[in-house]
Amino acid sequence: MTRDRGLIELRDVxxxxxxxxxxxxxxxxxxxxxxxxxxxxxxxxxxxxxxxTLACVLAGVTAPEAGTVRRGPALSGQGDSSLPVxxxxxxxxxxxxxxxxxxxxxxxxxxLEWADGExxxxxxxxxxEVGLGGHAEVSPTLLSGGQKQILALASTLIADPAxxxxxxxxxxxxxxxxxxxxxxxxxxxxxxxxxxxxxxxxVGDALRGDRTIVLARGSVAxxxxxxxxPLSEDALAEWGLLTPDLSLLAGLLFPPPAPEGRALWRAxxxxxxx
Amino acid sequence: xxxxxxDVHFTYAAGTPWARPVLKGIxxxxxxxxxxxxxxxxxxxxxxxxxxxxxxxxxxxGTVQVGEITLTPKTKSSRLLSGETGLVFQFPEKQLFAETxxxxxxxxxxxxxxxxxxxxxxxxxxxxxxxxxxGTYGRRSPFSLNWGEKRQVAIxxxxxxxxxxxxxxxxxxxxxxxxxxxxxDLMRELAGRGKTVMVVSHHLDDIFRVxxxxxxxxDGRVVFHGSLEELCRHDDLDRWGLEWPPLIRAVKAxxxxxxxxxxxxxxxxxxxxVLRPLLQSAPSTPPPLGKGGLRxx
Lengths: 274, 297
Description:
The complex is a heterodimer. Chain A is 30% helix and 24% strand.
């Protein structure tokens, strides 16, 4: 797996939405970033920072008003600009369009004009893999919260995307749902070179990737290795974000200049340090 | 006692092949002025339960007493509870409909027949309570606001009715941590003014900061009812599809080696007060950050 090949590149991308009073609300302002093969890029931002618009631009759902988006082989000058991208949103119900689970699962393959027999085989295999076989003929709206998000994710993974864009996919789920979805994500992330962009408003999610970008008021406010993300309450408040409780606790237990007080922690790791 | 539920049962699609029993004998009492946190995994019946507290659903068995009014399966009109309990739905912003923020918030008062002269002042007061300036937001379209602002407007639309009881169903769902903190602070302020507040959430750190007592729902029943200190002495949260917040997880992991530690901590400061005495050695370097996406989270 190589991490130096660009998969998608945004240069000076701006987007805005019309308001009813004739004005426009800017969602993204001259955003430039690159996602490389095989990496997990975390994008942090408060509500209204532009995360969902960025997710839609990355997924090709929204065209930028200004700036350029270059995808896949086009980045290396090979001509074909297509890039299979999967998008999973916070609330999967917003994206369901089919009356039953089986149809929803095969929808992307239908759009890709696979043969019916191939779709059936792929859907059966995926239904069995994610444990939804017994729900194939029910409405997606009757599934539990975790099952709905698993269906949304599996419906995307079935097409084997090279880039998976995850827009706060776990935020509406309880522990069981989060575990189910996280397990599926990690089991299916073995595809060589697949990149993930994980968008979140929880600063602790920077732990999910090597590199983090902070979006604030539609612009890239910070970019760098996740380990170097500023964690002081003042710095994060500037971007509308909150310091995670465990980092605040570490700061109280290990006052400056101790490095522990300025780190992101998992609960079990912090407990082991004590 | 301002709310008393006795043996409340409710089944969706009752009497059909698709019948789904959700509440299977709920007993619960909420004293006036208390802030009760209601916890439970997805599908545990939380939303169905709170919809009984404002009469949106009527019990199919048992009784629901709200103030002086008692609802039973024979009750004909759930509008008896109009003006008694305000309910902030999950994703309440989906119900915004008016052309302006002001009109949206005023609608409930107009519908209830409030004197016209009172309405502007009460709308402005409700906007201020949720942290929005009436001059800036009153004339804007609710559809031009971001998620957090829409949520604040929707909550203002319930607060303006000035009911003695308020139920918040997942008020922080879809909001960023700062937005959730604003709503937690608001609930604390409402409880401080003598309102009875009930809040349903799976963000347990938020709920623990604000609730006086907690009720845990599991399989359609109340499986725990008591304080955070009592809840922390149970280790059953996992069985109910819930997970301790990071602070309590960290303190519980330390307590496994140091029995007797108080694990009911609500803030980093409380956790630090519990853990500081254990720190004996000099700090070392922090562990490496996690790699490889979602693995190990």
